[in-house]
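Appendix B. Raw example, untouched.
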Amino acid sequence: MALGLEEALGMAGEFGGGQRRLTACLVLLQVYVAFQSMLIVLVGAVPEYHIDQEGVQASKAELAKHIHFADNFTSIVTEWYLIEQEAYKVSLASSLFFAGLLIGNITFGPLSDKLGRKPVYISGLFFDVVFGYVTALAPNYDVFAVSRFFVGIVNGGMALVSFVLTQEYVGKSFWSFTGSLTNLTFAVGIAVYALLGYCVREWRHLALVSNTPGVLFLLLSFILPESPRWLYSQGKMAEAEEVLQYIALGNGKEGLNLKLKPNAGTLQKDESAPGVLNLVKHPMLRWRTVILMYIWYVCSFVYYGLTLNAGELRGNLYLNVALSGLVEVPAFPLCMFLIEKSWCGRRKTMTCFLIFAGFACMFTMFLPTNAEMLAWVSVPCLADLGAFWLHLCHLW
């Protein structure tokens, strides 16, 4: 008997051993995504320095004779003397990465809808690794900055498609679990990157080491099947059935003969796929889309502002970066707990989280700066608390 996709997936298993192995690769990939996203925090960190002759601005060669950096780590700042009037270039490289991220998020989604999840994902990961090595081997700042822009494009797009692929391997009842687990792994990846930075103090070596896991994930990704949901949506029943049989076999369910009935929603050749404009045609849907887009913008803007600013906080550089990631870990079980409670409701919970995050961030402006210990402890704590609540909003 022919089955619908959800029925067939239920028979094959919604989250069996085979799916756990498939999603494990994509979930752990978030560690590598975190490495690339946070790279500039340590690679662009400014060590303590002093200039033994004031007013030296003639050239970098002249400046190099009079500037003395602390030798506890190196960065693009120490190699290319990005201080004083050149200091903006560190922020510029970070901005170029996020500009690329925007382009990647916009373009890779529609591409994966048209060409398939797997080829777009693997292509993005391949170029992510390539441009990551260009970053580590950049002979000058210009090459470094351009490489960060292209890393942003492919890293953001690849991460988006891999997240979708993770969801489409499992049943609907596990979407919240795998989605939250993906965000948790990204947070852990930030802490792991801080540990790498603590062990590897030379910035080029750190960039190489943090980019190398991408090679392993690239090789592992070739064994991943295409999304059965995408195949089904495209009317490729035979390929979708083959993937479902593969999943069932991985889940220990042998002998299943899964046959799919034709997808009523499959587009004809002369039909065009629904586009972004469908979100704004209906008044209610348009209003909700605008609100959610604004909330997502605010969450991302403040979250990355806090996370990337971890290197500027007082105290130990590596500990601050690690805490900026680890503080998000409790958000995963808390989010999963609240999702299962009928009395919470997503709207009320997200509203409360946004309020808590806003107050935590605002309170940092009123802390006394003349009390060294108080400022050292309170500002990082409140900033991390704000990041915690914002991460919960992201999960919702």
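End of appendix B.
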